[in-house]
Amino acid sequence: MRLPDRKETEVRAMLESGTPGPVPTDLAERAMLLGLRTAHRRRTAQWLLWIFFAAAVAFAVWAAVTEPWVGPPQQTTPPLGW
Amino acid sequence: MGDRRERRERRRVREFESFVAGAAGRLLHAATLLTAEPSGAAPAAQQLLVGALSRTYADWDRLRGEDPYEHTRHDLAVHFAHHAWRYRRPRGGLLGRLPPQERLMLVLRLYEGVAEEQVAATLGLPVERVRELSKRGMAAMLSSAEAGGDGRQGIRRLVSGAVFREAGAPDSGGLGGARRGERAGRDPEGVA
């Protein structure tokens, strides 16, 4: 850990020196409104992702059970003697 | 069930409001320094801060002991770095003559007192880059304080000279290391 040098102290004093402007009274309220919207959007996205995941699993299970890629069994035997 | 959720929401609102009441002044000052607006009329800084606070609020239940102030500052810094081009234009603030990245370094390193390594990790930059940017920003600030004129080019040259000299130092150390390695490599031969 090094000690802060003179230049750093000087610039820090410059940064601290400005009188901070007044904080708007509705700042927290605005942030909360926006935050709720963000949370809602995130929740919706998550929900959609879960739906997609569930649909993919359901499809995989159905496909494994019914094996739709297997054709129907042959009704006739192939002709003999060719 | 609904009652419990309502109570939790009320508590969250209360906690968040008290956090904002305590931290907003300092955070707004930092945001105003970043956007380089005059304090008192800083709509862009307010917007930047409201965005960061809103994400802190959205994450409030998941903070789990993390300091909300640090969370907000981290979000603010990352968001500012990502949209730095929006704040390129000087708007008459204290750091107006500095490019956005140097402003960010000065605010994080000096105003907020975040360690170089942590700044580097936050922004995904090498530590050397952080050091160089803050040094450049500091030099520009000091020169403008002393001269009041536009001595930026001269300062830039000076600082890059300093960086070059500094870069030379570890280099020679590296050479020493190589020489040491050479010797170490030869030693076993001597033994054999």
TrEMBL record, chain A:
<feature type="compositionally biased region" description="Basic and acidic residues">
    <location>
        <begin position="1"/>
        <end position="13"/>
    </location>
</feature>
<keyword id="KW-0812">Transmembrane</keyword>
<feature type="transmembrane region" description="Helical">
    <location>
        <begin position="47"/>
        <end position="65"/>
    </location>
</feature>
<feature type="region of interest" description="Disordered">
    <location>
        <begin position="1"/>
        <end position="22"/>
    </location>
</feature>
<keyword id="KW-0472">Membrane</keyword>
<protein>
    <recommendedName>
        <fullName>DUF3040 domain-containing protein</fullName>
    </recommendedName>
</protein>
<keyword id="KW-1133">Transmembrane helix</keyword>
UniProtKB/TrEMBL annotation, chain B:
<dbReference type="InterPro" id="IPR013324">
    <property type="entry name" value="RNA_pol_sigma_r3/r4-like"/>
</dbReference>
<feature type="region of interest" description="Disordered">
    <location>
        <begin position="166"/>
        <end position="192"/>
    </location>
</feature>
<feature type="compositionally biased region" description="Basic and acidic residues">
    <location>
        <begin position="179"/>
        <end position="192"/>
    </location>
</feature>
<feature type="domain" description="RNA polymerase sigma-70 region 4">
    <location>
        <begin position="94"/>
        <end position="140"/>
    </location>
</feature>
<dbReference type="InterPro" id="IPR036388">
    <property type="entry name" value="WH-like_DNA-bd_sf"/>
</dbReference>
<dbReference type="InterPro" id="IPR007630">
    <property type="entry name" value="RNA_pol_sigma70_r4"/>
</dbReference>
<protein>
    <recommendedName>
        <fullName>RNA polymerase sigma-70 region 4 domain-containing protein</fullName>
    </recommendedName>
</protein>
<dbReference type="Pfam" id="PF04545">
    <property type="entry name" value="Sigma70_r4"/>
</dbReference>
